[in-house]
Amino acid sequence: MGALGVSVRRVPPTPSSSRGRGPLRRRLAVGVLVLASLALITLSFRSGDEGAIAGAQDAGAAALRPFAVGVERVAQPFRDAYAWVESLFDARSEAERLRGDVRELRQRAIQAEFAVRENEHLRALLRYLDGPRFPAEFRPVTAEVISFPDNAFTQAVVIAAGSRDGVRVDDPVVTADGLVGLVSRVTASTARVQLLTDQGAAVSALDLRTNAQGVVRHARGTRETLVLDRVRKRDVVHVGDEIVTAGWRSGSLSSLYPKGIPIGEVTYVGDTDTDFFKQVQVDPYVDLGSLDAVIVLLPLARGR
Amino acid sequence: MSVGAVLRAAAVVFVAAMLQTVVVASLVVGGGAPNVLLVAVVSIGLLRGAVPGALAGFGGGIVVDLATLDTLGVTSLVLTLAGFWAGRYGETSGRGRRLAPVLAVGVITVLAGVFAFLLRYLLGEEVVAEHALVTALAPTVVLNTLLALPVYALVRALVREAPAAPPAREVEVIA
After folding, report:
1. pTM for the full model?
2. Is this complex scored with an ipTM above 0.85?
3. Are B135 and A223 in contact (CB < 8 Å)?
């Protein structure tokens, strides 16, 4: 009671406009947005790839594609600069053998290097397309990579080619260096490619030198390491061996991947008493973290 | 918010979302990539309040889900809550603190990462906790925190802060 009659300071109102509208309206607004998000997730799941939500998403993706391509073009020099700096740091940690290359890289003008890199990349793709390593029974569709996964959960990229170019779900995707992954979703002008390093990816593969067979999967808990799983203990695998796609065929069924596409090099072979299979670690040939362009392999048997 | 401020905020969110999906998401440093859209949404929340923050998060999330052909609504749900939390923090204890953007971005990056992990786990996606919550999240927190002040300054220059609060009034308690 002694405090009565004295003046006390009231907590000042917050500056935000949302405060002025009252807590109820604020909660209502965020509640509506959360409910809208949950409704979209539910509809997206229930309708699958064929429903109205998928159609709307395809239309939205198509509308965003020009922006994505534009931003990609504008950002390319900066990405190249970033890649250049990153490669510089990597080179410093490598052996003496690579230091000469680093000095040589430093002497080049950055702009000239951008042009050389792009040129080399395109030439490699062309050599691959015209060379004997390109799988028969497939025709290539070359596509630019226009977006990367926004989170740590998905290992996928979006490419600037879609059903209009003949791309279908489950078409294999490669570069001149080797296997990239599989088309997992297609819109008219874009397609989503599930990378080899995705948790859900699995490829029948074999050791090119010893013919040991297994399944290439993503190594759990890592970003870009693969394992050759299901290799029997009696099979022989050595560090340095080349792992390629097996491309099996059984009656009318066949592997989604053509035979002989390079996947990676064996970097570790383990054998413990408790495991049924050998533990084989594979370093992918393709740098899946910095893809610029890829080749989608379209089966010739499917037609155009 | 005025129409001009709304348009500028929408442009900021759209550009940030496109940059994130096309460029920034591929800049992996130490196992994780920065999330410039999350930082932009938190900045808008701090500057304009909870509702504009939530709206910016919802819009930016939709753009990302469309551009990456991901499950529609997942990113928007995560960013809606991120923008709302940032807005509430800005409206209450974060008001006037110089390092509020850094603190908000750091904490919300962790919360958003954990929430996104739980959400994707509930949706049945195969996710590895160690990778999602340690290997990728730790560098993302560091990178986002480094981006916090420059992105906040840029967003403040473009969107501007909400009008200042009226001076505190005194009340007389009468018996």
Report:
1. 0.65
2. no
3. yes
